[in-house]
Design brief:
The structure is a homotetramer of 349-residue chains. Chain A is an alpha/beta fold and 349 residues long. Chain A has two domains: 54 residues, Spermidine synthase, tetramerisation domain (Spermidine Synthase, Chain: A, domain 2, Roll), CATH 2.30.140; 260 residues, Rossmann fold (3-Layer(aba) Sandwich). Chain A has 13 helices and twelve strands. In chain A, strand 9, helix 6 and strand 10 form a beta-alpha-beta unit. The longest helix of chain A has 15 residues. The first copy, chain A, is globular. At the B-C interface, strand 2, strand 11, helix 10, helix 12 and helix 13 of B face strand 2, strand 11, helix 10, helix 12 and helix 13 of C.
């Protein structure tokens, strides 16, 4: 059946129904978010994953991989600014930056805002997603591909690092899917990978990784605390922080790690590294809050960014907010004992 | 974030998540169906309604107008065969058939299966839907537009009948949206419209209309009982029947009405018609069950259809099934007193 | 936070939100129904299953076992009348009736409406459900327990039949959970069980079983067609029929089987039985439609029921409706080849 | 139908389905959260609202009023600690504290942890909720009613303040439902109410109010920015802060206001107050971050709380985190121009 005649001029005044299309995404087994869909622009199956681009009423255009939100127009800047700027601003002079994953290209876009950056290498396994970013996700990828500092390789992120031994990096940014049971990226969250990453970092180098949900609940933050604990078994200093990203249905965690000098020595003495570093957690966590003032961070942003850049999310006050983890999350971090290995992975829901 | 390396050959064996996209359609305020979406092929706003073509895992390609399922690949034949064949088989020799609405073209497709039909006029207000049927809904529209007996007009279904006074019809088929509060089609469910329709029917002519949900529950079937009651205030014989159409989330009702000779006289004496006919309900309802045997219906199908036609849903036994309304629905029909007018419409949810 | 002062008299005129509580029940993996919950009266875990009694806005009080609707106040009479009356009315003089399962007691209630019944034995494994039926489901159980013809045993339905060899039955009614992969009742849907049941039936005895969803779709009706096929490998005559039970989210199927004399002989020659009976499907299916007239069925109901009984759903016209299966379901039944055994079960979703 | 025999010992190994009961709560029209329900303990309709107590798998026992989560066992401490402690710790010596609303009694519980408090007056309109808190929400109300410093009145929160002119308060805590269109509490979010509240505050007094969702999105935070702007039209200093409360489906905002001396003078000159104060926003917002060090806040908590008290959420680092609003929220606060009055209310969804 289909509609027919509008018999009078009241039609315009009638309440039209809103769409009945929804994207339901599980945050945990017992808690989901439900987001109204306006349209679906793309649907395909790459060699690695199901790929959809949809538009939701709440968050605008959204990339969905294997039925999980990757990033959405309305708040992708929160995710990408959170992932990139704290690490790059913490480094005194980041020149070479490596992105593991990063298909949407929002991470590259933020990195290229830094004047100091001379080379930005991005390695994402999925050509389909990278191509879509250029054609369908212009808000994410605008200008990236034209920047001569940027190079894209569609291959395995770890294999590339292993093979290209010429380039050493100041910052490595891991922008990959969560460590879920069905996911391909588990290996890139393990102690072995982090130890290997050290060998590709310059002195003073920094690694940062997206780290899954970061709520007050142990069950929701166990992925982020395990990643933190795993990094602490390799690096001197690990800073965990969380941003509110509404389209992810939860606060979201990140971990920055640094301290390459000491770690290189630690490689010979694994157990010592693991045990002694755990005690530093409390100190490290608050260090980031008091190490620099709000004004100093704001000044660094001004100095580092290419002329005319306006960050929408990150500044000095935001920095204090995202690193000011609540008592409960800090306790979870302190109490975490698991170290992620291929043999003993910790999976997100 | 995006996925990266597949580090081993276990990937193929992993359980892949199914899509998190859903179409939720309210059947009543307190009861909805939830259908998994695979993809959305089309999304637009015509002058009359929101138009979507989606593909669901359960029902295949589906036309959605104003966020209500119109028909789905998997069971549209049930809807269209139910709407068309009982009425056409009941008529001794249907030559001229009129479709009010019918945008998907499935109704036309079924009508054109009848050898006796010489002219099939379809009038749907929405050009956008009709065009989409030809390009995106080939299962529905295949062959229709090429049939010389078929003529399509995109305009008001009632206005067309009023203006084109040359053609008289043997069967009028109303394939329009449900009478919802926000809908444009209310006028086409009223006693006035049915009285007018009589003037466009040949002697022995028949009108059939889709009539909304037809469940055992009064609240769900009040649309269908009101349409039946409204038709009974105009026609001698009204037959209500129901088909199970899974994609509609409920059994679905139809009403066939006939008895033009007497009605024409009744026009002068409205009240008599209304009151006396109500008593005939019980008789009429069972009449259809015994009037013809299963074998007679099966034989009529064979004789009437163009060579090679295979109906998937309708035959003699099906006929008895769909007209064999349960005791409760027959009671609701008997007890219904409301007659639909523009001043006193009865709306579906 | 909690609400505070009503500061003026507009409160009554404000739109109050409806509840946000829902029961989502999967009909298939890709199709669910969503029913608004008003309240939850009971929640426990018996030795066999999760047990809930809830009240929904659409269907009233509802028994939910292992998170599947068992029966709801608003339409339980459709289920229970459909399960009981066609079989009992088909038998010339049913005295001893056996119920396998039947915890809500609606099946017993319908059986006890028959004057001819002298003994009604019900055997349900779950004491918790039976007790709840008496205290919380009075609409279902009213009067049952006080009827001297009724006896309840809480134990294994098959074991009871095996041990109590004194009683032979005229009708056996299987009112048990669907054959789902996680369910305990698989054994009671197998050819072995049906062969055994024959040995507990009097000459001319009848068995009827609820048979899961009965839609036009193969995937939805594969449980019912397999049960039909399995019964056809044992009994001479198998009649499949479907009722629309809105709270189940789908039409619902039942199978009646009879023909004990011949079957007993067949026991020695299994393959013959299986192969020859398959040819009878078409005849059997339509037989039920023409075997008795509407008037004859209505008269039988009058004669058989205890004085004052009013059936709400079932009568002669309803009978023709529910047995008038559509062409597609009849084709599925004809084409079904699977016979359910413990080694080769067919599971519902 | 009900389940029957477990025919073998595999039952324990079978996967049992999880419940199909859900609480869906709209955060916005296009974004909902879906929380699995284990049981419903209570359901009633008070004079003011629908009242439910449910238990969800994710958040435990939960009070739901008019179908919106009020607070849940798993994270109610975040809400109540956030509402109470920043304001009380900011005051040099809080003795008399007033709670408008607060039915669950979690707010009173937190207040009574302060040694300095001599009198805690709570006024909630809904006796039903208060009674339920004592019987069904012991985690919230434990010890409150037995504390001689606590007094409960079930009446209009504003009327009580107007009538009881003997008591002046050091801190007023507004713990009432969001200003939704259908809600009774609109009047308690208006400029008029805040001006009146000043007259009930001692010199140096502080008012704090829960302020609805506080996300990065204007549409989600418009309630909180309007409340902030309204308070700024009355008070010298207004501090907005946000906590992540998972069961609310969003970050949650609060506003603290102080500066009674100046305001009292402003009463004569409304427009001046409104216009000049707007300029202070930036300063005020960051003031709270630098005014006291982490160590000072931790020390104040130790000194103020009764012996043995352990706060689970709030401490010095948490303080910096919740007041460290992101650049976007601070911009929304700065740009907000609306002042809430009964004539021009701003409603939450």
């Amino acid at each position: 059946m289909t509609a027919t005649a509008v018999t009078d001029d009241t039609w315009e005044n009638l309440v039209k129904p809103t769409t009945g299309f929804w994207f339901e995404e599980e945050v945990t087994e017992d808690f989901s978010v439900k987001i109204r869909i306006e349209s679906m622009e793309h649907h395909s199956k790459s060699d690695f994953q199901d790929v959809q681009i949809i538009t939701t009423s709440e968050f605008g255009r959204t990339l969905v991989l294997d039925h999980k939100t990757q990033s959405a127009a309305r708040d992708e800047h929160i995710y990408h600014e959170s992932l990139v700027h704290p690490a790059l601003m913490m480094h005194p002079n980041p020149k070479n930056v490596y992105i593991g994953g990063g298909g949407e290209m929002g991470t590259a876009r933020e990195i290229l805002k830094h004047k100091s950056v001379e080379k930005c290498i991005m390695v994402d396994i999925d050509q389909v997603v990278c191509d879509l970013a250029l054609t369908h996700l212009k808000q994410w990828s605008e200008g990236v591909n034209e920047d001569p500092r940027f190079q894209l390789f569609c291959e395995d992120a770890k294999a590339h690092l292993e093979q290209d031994t010429d380039t050493m990096y100041d910052v490595i940014i891991m922008d990959i899917a969560d460590p879920i049971e069905a996911g391909p990226g588990i290996a890139l969250y393990t102690r072995d990978f982090y130890k290997f990453a050290v060998s590709r970092l310059n002195v003073g180098g920094i690694i940062v990784t997206q780290s899954g949900p970061g709520s007050h609940f142990n069950v929701q933050s166990e992925c982020c605390t395990t990643i933190s604990r795993t990094l602490r078994s390799v690096f001197d200093h690990v800073y965990t922080y969380c941003s509110d990203i509404p389209s992810f249905g939860s606060n979201w965690a990140f971990n920055i790690a640094t301290g390459v000098e000491r770690i290189t020595a630690d490689m010979a003495s694994e157990d010592v590294a693991i045990n002694t570093l755990a005690e530093d957690v409390g100190k490290d966590l608050t260090y980031s809050l008091t190490g620099r003032t709000i004004a100093e961070i704001d000044q660094t942003i001004d100095e580092r960014c290419v002329d005319g850049t306006i960050l929408k999310f990150y500044d000095g006050v935001t920095h204090l907010g995202v690193f000011g983890l609540t008592k409960e999350i800090r306790t979870s971090l302190k109490n975490e004992t698991r170290i992620m290995t291929l043999e003993n992975p910790v999976f997100m829901h």
